[in-house]
What we know:
Blueprint: E1 3-8, E2 12-19, E3 22-30, H1 35-49, E4 57-62, E5 65-67, E6 72-74, H2 87-95, E7 99-103, H3 104-115, E8 124-129, E9 133-139, E10 142-143, H4 165-168, H5 171-182, H6 191-199, H7 203-227, E11 231-235, H8 244-258, E12 268-270, H9 277-287
Parallel strand pairs: 1-4, 4-7, 8-11, 11-12
Antiparallel strand pairs: 1-2, 2-3, 5-6, 8-9, 9-10
Helix pairs in contact: 3-9, 5-6, 5-7, 6-7, 7-8
Amino acid sequence: MTLLTIDIGGTSIKYGVWENEELSHKGNLKTPATWEEMKSSLIRIKETAEETFTIDGVAFSSPGAVNQEKRIIEGASALPYLHNFPIYDELETVLNCPVTFENDANCAALAEIWKGAAKGLKNVLFVVVGTGIGGAVIVDGQIQHGKHLFGGEFGFMLMTENETFSTLATAVNMAKRYAKRKGYEPETISGKKMFQLADEGDQIAQEEAATFYTYLARGIYNLQYSFDPEVILIGGGISNKAGLVEKLEEEFDKILETVKIAPFKPLIRTCEFKNDANLIGAVANYLQ
């Protein structure tokens, strides 16, 4: 089977062809501003692929709450034109082949249990740390979407009286807190820059980095003892940071000193697939 696989993102569309267990002919383009422009772009991508391949179907990764039963995308995202209409039917008509959709974070998780860092495992949590925190819950090898299609939306967890996992445990918000304390414009400091400042001895940067690591570890600890997965995978930009796993291990040690009844630390790994994760996971979803 030869599949065209497409990852629709807020700023770009990535695509490739899956054949003989390999992803090839990859490319990307800027995300169109309207649905009509999007359809035209998707038609062109498929027509170009068909110059070399016979395409059997198209596997999509997309933002939003994908309702596979109703064949629509619910919820909200950076691309409101994708939501709440029969998107499967419309694309199957214009692309002239079967299509499938799955949420982008769920696709990344499927890629990892199919061929990546959690290959061969059945019960896995996938925590995506980006601008906010999302993820996926996998039980017996299957994505658990939940009643409201909010399975894996870990960022909504309350960590203090009025702050969530997303507000306390992302590098983006860590940098914003640092900028506010220093009197800088928020957009002038990135998470990467702030980690660099912490390494160079900036005390406020070190304090904010400590807050970030503390709450990321607490959130992961809470998830471990709520779901008890075989492994928790960390994805998103933070997964590229050198020493992340070791730093979280140190934080888990501190937690276990306090919660003496807890018998083990969470097993965490960073994701194997980076930019290709959503494309590979969309294929896994299609084949399921």
